[in-house]
Amino acid sequence: MKYKLIVLVVLAVSAAAPAAFAGEPAAEQFRGDWVPASAKCNSPLRFRVGSLQVTLINGTDSMSYGNLGWPTTFFGPDYAGIVVTAMPEIDSGESPFTIFFNADERRGVTKLSILQGEESKAPGMARYNKIVRTAQALNKRFPLDNVPLKRCAPTRQPA
What we know:
Elements: H1 2-15, E1 32-36, E2 45-49, E3 54-58, E4 61-65, E5 84-86, E6 98-101, E7 109-113, H2 126-141, E8 149-151
Antiparallel strand pairs: 1-2, 1-8, 2-3, 3-4, 5-6, 6-7, 7-8
């Protein structure tokens, strides 16, 4: 039931995209490559945050998403913590995952929530079922669901 609730929140937030600041660029502090916290920065599995898009990377396989939404009331109107939430493709109503910068109230830690329902079928919930199937396939390609990520220092280009 927990997963259905997350999808319903995603769908509700997506429907309110203007309040979610859709299309706003990512803050500089979040841009760059993020790798599993237990990995070295040359890890082939990574999450790249650009100004207007994010990319999941696993070796030579990659998938990019744009139209980032920044739902300011994701945790409710009284939330006063440091977690910053973003959702790619927010206007679609079927955001493939949710990004939590400063996840678990820990500055510098990012986590992705790629919906992983325990069952891939919920009777009468076709849209939910489609989102779950898509997310499960995405997580097989890019196993980053709920993995703590650290930001790697950008590599400097020679002048």
